[in-house]
Amino acid sequence: MVTLLRNAPVVALLLMMFVTPQNGAELREFGKVRLMRVPEGGIQPQVAVDGRGEIHLIYFKGDPGHGDVYYVRAKNGALFSKPLKVNTQPGSAVAVGNIRGAHIAAGKNGRVHVAWNGAHAPGGQGKEPMLYSRLNDAGTAFEPERNVIQFAHGLDGGGAVAADAVGNVYVVWHAPEPGSEGEGHRRVWIARSTDEGKTFERERPAFDKPTGACGCCGLNAFADHSGALYVVYRSATEMVNRDMYLLVSRDQGQTFQGQNISKWNVGYCVMSSESFAENGKTVMAGWETEKQVYFGRIDPASGKLAQPIAAPGASDNRKHPALAVNAAGETLLAWTEGMGWKKGGTLGWQIHDGSGKPQGEKGAAAGVPVWSLLAAFARPDGGFTIVY
Prior knowledge:
Elements: E1 2-3, E2 18-19, E3 27-30, E4 33-36, E5 43-49, E6 55-63, E7 66-74, E8 84-85, E9 103-106, E10 112-117, E11 130-134, E12 146-147, E13 160-163, E14 169-176, E15 186-193, E16 204-205, E17 219-223, E18 229-234, E19 244-249, E20 257-262, E21 275-278, E22 283-289, E23 292-298, E24 309-310, E25 319-325, E26 331-337, E27 345-352, E28 358-368, E29 375-378, E30 384-387
C-alpha cells in the first residue's frame, strides 16, 4: 500500500488509481509518480531508456543463488512485451546480496546489452565469470552469454555495463590485482568493445590511483549522449576508508580522471549500490553514505560533481538509490529503507526541481522484496515510474 510521508498534500490521495498493464504488473498512480511491480513477481529490476524513448527492463527470477534474467520492452512504460530469457545457461545468474545482479544498457540503434555476475565458477572458486550478452540483430533473442574476464578474476561485488550511440560497449567490475589479495588491492577493471559487443579487448585497470574497492559493494557505469563514460564505486583503503569515487572518461574508456565524491569512515562492508540518470542535458549520479542516499549533478564540461543533495528527513538505513530526470530537469530520487541480509524493506521517493530543491511530491510504499532493488525512469508526460 502506498502511504504519504509527512507534509505531503492530502489531496494527492484522490489522484491515486490502480491499473493492470498487459503483463499483469500492478501499477499505482500518485501524482507524478507511478509505482509498478516487477513483471512476473521478479526482483532486481534494472532499466535503460534508448534514444527513441523506448523502455528496456530486465529482472531476476528463480533461486537467488542460481536464477535467470529476463527482458521486456515498452514504449509507454506499462504495456510490456513478452519476456525474453537473457541467459542461455540455466541458473547462471545470482541475486544474493542485492548488488551482484544484472545490469542493462541501450547502445547504438537501441541494441540492448546485459552483464551480470555468473553463478557458476567453471575454473574453481574465485574464478566466477563476468557474463555478457546482447540482443541479436533481429531483436528476437539474446546471443549466448560470454565471460569477458581474461585474467582479472576474483569477483565479489557486482559489475556493470555501459554502451554509447556509436557502438562502444564497456563491461566494468572490480577484482584484485592478479597475484594479490585483500580489498586494498582490488581495482576497477574495464573490458571494452568497439563493435557493439561482438568482441571485447583484454581488460585493463580503469584508474591508476590505489584506492582499493569494497569487496561486497556494487559499482555502476554509464555512457551519456556525448559518449562520455562514467563509473562510480566504493573504495577500501586501510580497511576503514570506504569513500565513493567517480571516474570520468572522455576518450571511449582509454583514460579516466577520478575524484573522491563522498567520504565514509566505516570498518565493515556496506553492500551498497549506485545509479545514474540523464535527460539529454544533465547527468546525475546517486549513491549511499552513512545510511543516507545522495545524488549530484555532474558538470558536462569539467566532469566534476556538484554539491551532493541528500534525501530529506530522517534515515532508516537508506540504501540502493534510483534516479530519473525528466525533460524539464526535475529529478526523482528513490531509495529503500530498512533492508538487510535476507530482509526486505520499504521504498521512499522525492521529486526535486531543476535546482535540486525538494518539491512537494514525496511518498513511501511497503513491499520491496528480499534481495531486490529499485529502478526508475522518466515518462514522456513528465511523470516518473518506480519499478520495485
